[in-house]
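User: What would this chain look like folded?
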Amino acid sequence: MIMKNKIMKKIPEGYKQTEIGVIPEDWKVNKLANVASLKARIGWQGLTTAEYKDFGEYYLITGTDFKNGFIDWENCHYVEKARYSQDKNIQIKEHDVLVTKDGTIGKVALINRIIKPATLNSGVFVIRPFKNEFFPEYFYYLLLSKVFFKFLVQLSAGSTINHLYQKDFVNFSFQVPSNITEQTAIATVLSDTDALVEHLEKLIAKKKGIKKGAMQQLLTGKKRLPEFSGEWKVKSFGEVLSRINAKEYQIQTSDYQETGKYPVVDQGKDLVVGYSDREGKSVQCPKGGVVVFGDHTCIVKFVNFDFVVGADGTQILVAKSGHCTRFYAFQLAYRGIATTGYNRHFKFLKERTFLSPDPEEQAAIVSILSDMDAEIESLEQKRDKYIMLKQGMTQQLLTGRIRIYANN
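Assistant: Here's the prediction, encoded as structure tokens.
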């Protein structure tokens, strides 16, 4: 007997093989055309951007109004009542699931609340289940998962598509628990996680607002800490800061490693972009740290560890004796560095003056603002942890690998 070279994966007990993969035995595969209506504003209605209004009683939802899986009502335009009344099929209801079909296709939003009557422009589909074929919120999360992404990739077949056609979308097949109670349970778990992330986002924004207010008061001397009363002095750049020649420590992108002794610091959005073991290229970070910003980005960062410089145009500043580097990092972050054109920011920065209290007051202000930064960073890490947790749960729950409800 000839053995097959290909070893078939064993299907776990309680699961079955389907055209879209392995799913629980008590789940089913649906084709969108058989279980839901798929509607959009049809071409003959001829709605143009000239009809979009800034005020009104009838919202018009477009793909640009999708924000974090919901509708940003404050961003919506309006249309006349006649345009709203023209097509009942696209008059929006709570629990509707929306998908963009033009431009950036496949963006998804759930209608979780309606402020005013709303309709759609021609770039958005609305999906509604027939009777109780599926729970809309379950389907919403499924569209946010790899299942729908894979469907869109297969449609493109290696090319760039900028339109999702109804004739294709109705053939979208997806897995669903046969029991709607399980669908609801899955959606509730994911929704609760979303709510927690949203709560943390709001808390982070609040804490950042408090920090911004504290910076405005403390870094300008408008509010003094009780134990200090000395006069603040106006100092030139050269009196409080000096520049380290970053080019001596710069390496090329091709030299970046995934691991290494020294982080590679870049002037862009991400502080650490790689690692290096180049001893001769490492900045031995002085006590008190350094300020890093870019001639191209002007993003101010504070660094208190040894590092290697990554990007061309990165600038490194360190406070002079008797001054606190991080105090001036906060000042630069608060006041900003004007965008003056390619590779010219440092020239203008050298002409800037700084409000400078005694070193003890600098250190006290830094301690307060650093504690605020640490609290914000802790909340951001917690938020990111829940986002990663949700991504993992989504894949596990929507494929039935983890069951939170089973029909016994």
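Residues 15-178 form a domain with the Adenine-n6-DNA-methyltransferase TaqI; Chain A, domain 2 fold (CATH 3.90.220.20). If you want, I can go into more detail on any region.
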